[in-house]
Write a sequence for this structure.
C-alpha cells in the first residue's frame, strides 16, 4: 500500500539503525520522548527499541487521549447518564475506562444508563435526530485531531435546528501539555533531550506551535509519521541535532504536515471553541489553557451550560502508576499490577484501555524496554 509498505521496509530500517548507531556518542545518554500514543503503539509493535543503541531511552509521553482524561471527568459523564436521563454517546475506548470505584460507563449502562458507542460525532447527531424527545450528549474527548469534527457537528446542529443535542467538551491541547511537562518541577521534564512530535495532531495545528520548545526550552522537536521508518528517521534527526547542540523544530512527516497546518480546521475550532482557564490532566495535574470549552455563541450546544456538571478531582486507583507513566517518570512494567490484576480485558487504569496506551502497547507486544 502506498505510503505504508514503503515506510516499513526492513532493509531501509536496518540501514537507519546503522546510521543511528554510527552517530550516537558512547559518552552520554539520549532521553527522547514520543509525545503521542500512536508513536508508542508503533514503537512497541515494530520492536524499535531493539534496533537502537542502549544509551537511547525512549520515554512515553501523555499523548493518548483516553489515558489523560482524569477520573473526575468520567465520573461527570456517568452522572450525566445516570442522573439526567440523557443518551450519552462517546467513542468505544472511553466506555471501558475505570472511574471512581472502578465503575466505567459500560457498567453504568449495565445499571440502566443509556450509553451508546459511536464512531464519529456525526453518529451522535444522528441519534439526536432519531430521538427528538430525548436529550443527547456527545462526550467529546481527544487532542486537536478529533476537535474539528466536534466543532463541525455543533455547527451542523445549529444550522439544522437540532435542539436536543449538546457536547460535553473535553478536548485537550498538545502544545500546552508539552509545556506542562517541560515546566514540571519533577525531574522528568529536565532530563528530556528531545521530543518526537505528534503526527496526526500536527496535520491540524502544523509545526509552528512547537517552536516555543526550541526557542524557550532549547530542546529539538522532530514531527514524525506513524510508520516505523518515520520513527527511526526522526530519532536520527534528533540525535544529529542533539550532538550538534542545536534546538530546532524539524518536520520528518512532510507528506502530511505543513508549518501552518490546516487553516480551515483551525478557523472552525476558533469559531466554536475557546481555551479553558485550566484543565486537570491525569498524571500532569492542572495545566493553564490546556483544554477547550464551547464558547458563548454556541452556548446552547454546551452540555455544561444545559446541565449541572460538577467536577471533583479523584485520585487514581491505589497501585496504578498511570500518572507517573503519562509524565514519563515510569514504565508500564514498573507497575506491580501490570499483566496480573491489570490486563486489557480487565483494566485498572486508563493506560491499559486504549491501544495507544503505554501499558496496553507493552502488554500486547511484549515490549521489554
Ligand atoms: Fe495503571 Fe494498569 Fe498500567 Fe498499572 S498496568 S499503570 S494499573 S494501567
Amino acid at each position: 500500500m502506498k505510503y505504508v509498505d514503503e515506510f516499513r521496509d526492513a532493509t531501509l530500517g536496518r540501514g537507519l539503525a546503522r546510521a543511528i548507531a554510527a552517530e550516537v556518542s558512547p559518552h552520554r545518554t539520549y532521553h527522547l520522548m514520543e509525545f503521542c500514543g500512536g508513536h508508542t503503539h508503533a514503537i512497541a509493535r515494530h520492536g524499535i527499541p531493539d534496533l537502537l543503541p542502549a544509551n537511547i531511552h525512549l520515554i512515553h509521553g501523555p499523548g493518548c487521549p483516553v489515558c489523560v482524561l482524569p477520573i473526575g471527568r468520567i465520573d461527570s459523564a456517568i452522572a450525566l447518564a445516570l442522573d439526567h436521563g440523557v443518551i450519552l454517546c462517546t467513542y468505544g475506548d472511553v466506555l471501558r475506562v475505570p472511574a471512581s470505584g472502578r465503575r466505567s460507563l459500560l457498567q453504568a449502562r449495565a445499571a440502566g444508563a443509556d450509553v451508546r458507542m459511536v464512531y464519529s460525532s456525526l453518529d451522535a447527531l444522528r441519534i439526536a435526530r432519531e430521538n427528538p424527545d430525548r436529550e443527547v450528549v456527545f462526550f467529546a474527548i481527544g487532542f486537536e485531531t478529533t476537535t474539528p469534527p466536534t466543532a463541525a457537528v455543533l455547527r451542523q446542529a445549529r444550522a439544522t435546528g437540532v435542539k436536543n443535542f449538546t457536547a460535553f467538551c473535553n478536548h485537550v491541547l498538545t502544545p500546552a501539555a508539552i509545556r506542562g511537562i517541560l515546566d514540571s518541577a519533577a525531574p522528568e521534564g529536565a532530563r528530556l533531550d528531545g521530543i518526537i512530535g505528534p503526527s496526526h495532531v500536527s496535520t491540524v495545528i502544523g509545526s509552528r506551535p512547537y517552536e516555543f520548545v526550541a526557542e524557550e526550552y532549547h530542546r529539538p522537536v522532530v514531527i514524525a509519521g506513524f510508520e516505523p521508518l518515520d520513527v527511526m528517521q526522526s530519532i536520527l534527526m534528533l540525535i544529529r541535532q542533539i550532538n550538534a547542540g542545536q534546538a530546532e523544530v524539524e518536520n520528518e512527516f512532510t507528506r502530511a504536515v505543513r508549518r501552518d497546518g490546516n487553516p480551515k480546521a483551525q478557523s472552525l475550532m476558533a469559531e466554536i471553541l475557546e481555551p479553558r482557564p485550566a484543565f486537570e490532566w491525569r498524571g500532569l495535574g492542572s495545566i493553564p489553557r490546556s483544554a477547550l470549552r464551547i464558547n458563548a455563541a454556541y452556548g446552547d450546544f454546551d452540555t455544561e451550560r444545559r446541565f449541572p456538571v460538577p467536577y471533583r478531582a479523584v485520585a487514581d486507583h491505589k497501585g496504578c502508576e498511570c500518572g507517573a507513566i503519562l509524565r514519563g517518570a515510569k514504565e508500564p512494567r514498573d507497575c506491580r499490577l501490570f499483566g496480573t490484576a491489570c490486563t486489557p480485558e480487565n483494566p485498572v487504569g486508563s493506560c491499559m484501555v486504549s491501544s495507544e496506551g503505554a501499558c496496553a502497547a507493552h502488554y500486547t507486544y511484549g515490549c521489554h524496554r
The CA atoms of residues 17 and 51 lie 6 Å apart. The chain has three domains: 5-35+44-62+178-196+212-251, 67-173+261-306, 322-361. Residues 67-173+261-306 form a domain with the Rossmann fold fold (CATH 3.40.50.11740). Residues 320-322, 325, 332, 335, 337-338, 342, 347-349, 351-352, 359 surround iron/sulfur cluster (CB under 6 Å).
